[in-house]
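hey so i finally got around to running the thing on that chain from the lab meeting. sorry it took forever, my laptop kept dying and i had to restart like 3 times. anyway pasting the input first so we r on the same page abt which one it is
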Amino acid sequence: MVRLLGARPVFADVTGHDDLTIDPEHVLSLIGEKTRAVVVMHYGGFSADLVRLAEVCASRGVILIEDAAHAFAVSTPAGTCGMVGDYGTFSFFATKNVSIGEGGLVVARDPERNAFIRRHRSHALTTTPVERAASGALDYDVDSVGLNYRPSDISSAIALAQLDRLPDAQRAREAARTDYRHRLAALEGVVLPFASVPDDESAHHLAAILLPEGTNRNAVVRSMRTRGVQVGMHYPPTHLFSAYRDADAPPLPITEAVVPRLLSLPMHARLRTEDVAHVVEALGSALAEEAHG
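ok and heres what got predicted. didnt touch it at all, straight out
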């Protein structure tokens, strides 16, 4: 969206191997006269340092936008993810903790900005069908340019039903994360980012790990698939995609060191203890095979 608006995205590094969220101090060093907003993503369901990021943005007079697609209903010392910044965004994509297949949600702290979003999600009509039905008026105006970003009523009903089930689903993900942490401790060289974060302070959208340094990740992936375990990698670094390469951009050494080791293990609300055990056993066998050539 930054590029589509004609602006230039500037990428900041992550905090470290144990914290894969954006580094507030690097963000601070990158803010310049043309900076208009800072976008922070709560990676894998773990909150970035919103207290510090809010301080940084306030000190420089820039907007803070939270990408909370991975972090539904996650509480932080600063407040709930998605509700601390000037704007918060959420995703309902098929893999998310609350899913309707596609689409999302955006909120704003300022009432006028919220009203602007509500109107411009529906062609910038000055009244809604519900308001016209209540008033008996048939006419309306369009006073600016808007688009159709409305979800369907059916999709919205599904989302509301899933929100009711979210606490139970979050507890199931939390239990799976705890199980993963205990079992992965036996695998030498495997790093579980955010290990120091209490399990009840995350949405556990991903179960991301770092493989031992020098591991052939593709070989591990192939080996795990032969054992019936599907794994992924979230995500290739955006700043290295062809469309976003910038010779003048600052280096992101931590990100580039982390990415080759990054692997996402299965994580969802229906994972059983025996499933986690199978995944970790498959990972251990794959690492042993890779180590021995």
